[in-house]
Amino acid sequence: MGHGWEGVVLKLMRGRDFPLTVTGAEDVTEHCRRVHFRDGGMLAVTGIHPTMWVRVWFPGADRPHQRAYTLVDPDPVAGTFAMEFALHEGPAGRWARGANPGDTVQATVQGSAFVAPDPAPERMFLIGDSASAPAINSLLSALPEVPATIWLETRHGSDENLPLRIRPARHEVRRVPREDDGAQLVAEVRAALPGLLGDPAGAYVWIACDTVTTRALARFTRKELAVPRPQVHALGYWRP
Ligand SMILES: Cc1cc2nc3c(=O)[nH]c(=O)nc-3n(C[C@H](O)[C@H](O)[C@H](O)COP(=O)(O)OP(=O)(O)OC[C@H]3O[C@@H](n4cnc5c(N)ncnc54)[C@H](O)[C@@H]3O)c2cc1C
């Protein structure tokens, strides 16, 4: 089955396709499933970078659906990585629940990029949820010496157990239960960030929540807190 118009647009933008093969899967929590893949030669071609993600085509009733997922522990030599799926009622979540060794999906590589903050930031502020926890982990691993405050919006009690690669000496996690469609997270960040920020020039703010929450927090950070544009990365990870 073809990918429909989405596939055509990506091809024109020089997206490259690779077949991914499932080698195993396990539940991380009741609402998060980790699936392990062989990469079909992908990482040897693309290389890797923090927060790297690919567009995966999942089966649907009439056509495949494309969803973005972050690579966990990509290993270009072994040609392997995992993905951690926050589970919802959608094509990606349905597929992940039933994934078995030997299953295959296609990945299109297009759009993922990471510009390392330069100079290295004095402090990081990472704001996300279960969908962006894998990317947050990759940032914490890539910049392990930089003190970080992490706001993690939680939807389920089990989200407390999502694996975060924190070093307690330098990283502080603030968990915020999702309320009022994300408004609670926005309120908590608005209340706390000004007091933690210090010199905006030394801060790096990374935001990946639902699209509405991400937009509100990006505007606050850039406009009201005057963090310079190159030091704010904001990308909505899902549509509420
Ligand atoms: C760059 C990037 C990287 C991403 N990496 C990851 C990752 O590593 N792991 C991961 O789990 N997600 C990740 N996401 C988010 C993921 O692509 C979306 O959540 C996607 O919509 C899930 O597809 P689905 O088929 O399960 O649900 P959809 O068919 O898209 O949606 C079904 C229903 O579920 C709701 N929904 C979808 N996603 C979420 C969510 N995260 N939380 C609450 N409700 C939701 C929708 O509002 C809708 O009502 C990433 C997104 C981007 C842009």
Task: Write up what this structure looks like.
Helices cover 25% and strands 33% of the residues. The protein has 6 helices and 12 strands. A 7-stranded antiparallel beta sheet has the order 4-3-7-1-2-6-5. It has a 5-stranded parallel beta sheet with strand order 10-9-8-11-12, with helices on both faces. A hairpin with a 4-residue loop joins strand 5 and strand 6. The radius of gyration is 18 Å and the shape is globular. The mean pLDDT is 93. Bound molecules: flavin-adenine dinucleotide. The site of flavin-adenine dinucleotide has 22 residues, from strand 4, strand 6 and helix 3.
Percentage beta strand? 25-35%
- Gross morphology is globular
Number of strands: 12
Distance between the first and last residues' Cα: 28 Å
Helix/strand/pairing class, anyone?
alpha/beta
Total DSSP helices:
6
Lateral strand order in the biggest sheet: 4-3-7-1-2-6-5
| Mean pLDDT score | 93
By CATH, the superfamily of the largest domain comes out as Nucleotide-binding domain of ferredoxin-NADP reductase (FNR) module
> What percent of residues adopt helix (DSSP H or I)?
25-40%
Q: Indicate the CATH topology of the largest domain.
A: Rossmann fold
Radius of gyration based on Cα positions? 18 Å
